[in-house]
Amino acid sequence: MKLGILGGTFDPIHFGHILMAQAALDEVALDRVLLLPGGDPPHKTPHAPKADRLHMVRLAADTDERFLVSDMELKRAGRTYTVDTLLQLRDEYPHAQLTYIVGSDTLMLFPSWKDAERVATLCDMAVVLRPGDSREAIQGTIAQYHETLGLHAVLLRFTGPDISSTAIRSAAQIGLPLDGLVPEAVAGYIRDKGLYRLAG
Q1: Which helix (H) or strand (E) holds 68?
Q2: Residue 114 Rama label (left phi>0; alpha psi -120 to 50; beta)
Q3: Contact 33, 25 (CB under 8 A)
Q4: Which end of the chain has less neighbouring CB within 10 Å, N or C?
Q5: Residues 6 or more apart in contact with residue 67 via CB below 8 angstroms
Q6: Is residue 85 within 8 Å of residue 42, measured between CB atoms?
Q7: Pairing between strand 2-8 and 32-37?
């Protein structure tokens, strides 16, 4: 099985994430994509509680039967690192080829990841170009990381939409509609739970 992995704080999960996963499924011929909400990631501090972020991911996963959801990172105590997640997935899916799906902005941080060279031996990567990034520059970065870190990565033809969790939280804070930004079920959950609303 060719298993894609899309991790993130998913605070909240949005159509940008979903389209990234679907592009990787189609362009790299993956069988499934595992959506993996992060517990305590080193680069971000989540706004919504773990249980709410996981529930929103499960709601979003219902939009495509090829999506799976794992809460393994949410259950792990302390900081969550990709290398530890990949080692756990190797145990759970011993015969799977693992493909980590990242945006080009995240790719640029790869040398700073814990045990980056080990990560490169555990998975390959499917990279989605973020709006504003140069396709040629990212191709050059991929080639550089292959040479220096042994990373095998491919840049997808798909370019990610200009949707950010930060903008969605800002809209939700003041009660603006989230149509076209998140799946309808996720928008309803954010509204019903009052997530990201300003206090008072």
Answers
A1: strand 67-69
A2: beta
A3: yes
A4: C
A5: 21, 32, 33, 34, 35, 60, 61
A6: no
A7: parallel
Structure tokens at 31: 């069988």
Greatest CA separation for the chain: 53
The token pair at 81 is 């690192």
Amino acid at 93: Y
Please report the DSSP string for 13-50 in residue order. --HHHHHHHHHHHHHTT-SEEEEEE-SS-TT---SS-H
In tens digits, the chain (200 residues) has pLDDT values of 999 999 999 999 999 999 999 999 999 999 999 999 987 666 667 899 999 999 999 999 999 999 999 999 999 877 888 999 999 999 999 999 999 999 999 999 999 999 999 999 999 999 999 999 999 999 999 999 999 999 999 999 999 999 999 999 999 999 999 999 999 999 999 999 999 997 64
The residue written with tokens 């995240």 in the block is 106
Tokens describing residue 90:
């190797």
